[in-house]
Amino acid sequence: MSKFAKNQWYAAAWLAELGNTLVARRILDEPVVLFRDSDGKVVALADRCPHRLVPLSMGTLVDRGIQCGYHGMVFDGAGRCAHIPGQDKIPPRAEVRSYPIAERYGIAWIWMGDAARADLTRLPVIDHYDDEGWELIDGGYQHHPSNYLNIVENLMDPAHTTFVHKMTIGNPAAKSEPVKMKKEDDYIVAFKWLFNSPPSPMDRQIKDFGDQSVDRGQFFYYYIPAVSRVDIITIPAGLEPTEENFNKGLRNNSYKFLTPETDGSTHFFWMHLRNYKIGDKEWSQRMRGLFEKTFLEDREIEMAMQRSQEELGVRQFVGLEIDRAPTVAIRMIDRLIKEEAKDSGKVAA
Ligand code: FES
Ligand SMILES: [Fe+2]
Question: What class of enzyme is it (predicted)?
Fold first, then answer.
């Protein structure tokens, strides 16, 4: 059974990375090469020449597709062999696997499973992307040398902020707030409200609240298997908590897209949307720096955990109450992988 859910869309690359170059990336433990074909469409092929298994990414981009750097076979965006130097006959097995790609939200999304099932309606949905009155910071990428489930747990766990992020976004008051949880079919959300409190120092830099108190909501969504959204809302104290009112307050939506690289490493893509300081590039620059630093703090912890887990062959020895939401998220992913295995068993039978 695969360790990963394959019939899913995963972020493979930022579209901005894919100019006139070949991008080699290991995804769900398979080598993939991404590039734009002559029409400018992003394509993804298995990064192995079928001749002597040399990575195609060591070759070059040519008019008709990608040319192997060893003996010059050319493959088009669909993975068909278009040319063999010095030979007219193209053997039937001279082809490479091509993966479905969807271009949306500035990202090339890849479908690593059964191509016949690649379903655009299942692409992640990013609220307010391209909406007027929302400002985007995108292009974020970090390589995290840790199993992606460690990162899923981290992203569903508001409790660590106080300790891991002392130097960045940490907030001592967060320590004692109770976290609630809600589970739906394809996502889970852990959330907490801090009612009737003074605005945070950051919120004061954004808006003049005078002596007004605020309600502050923090929602940690995880859409199974690969998308995290942290929704932070500040509204005047006592305002009814509706979507409409949330958008009238200060709102931060931080998205992370986790793409397993191997069993022990993860591509961590991120973007951020806010409904204030529109067009303020300086503020965006500052936020980008803060987020990068915050995610590196998590990375260091996840990396150290990974080392211990590999050494001991276990993930943890004891469970705490704060593990509730992360544990549910992991179970949902686990179930998805099992269902896929069952499904593909049926198809094979
Ligand atoms: S290894 Fe690619 S053409 Fe020979
Ligand atoms: Fe964190």
Answer: oxidoreductase
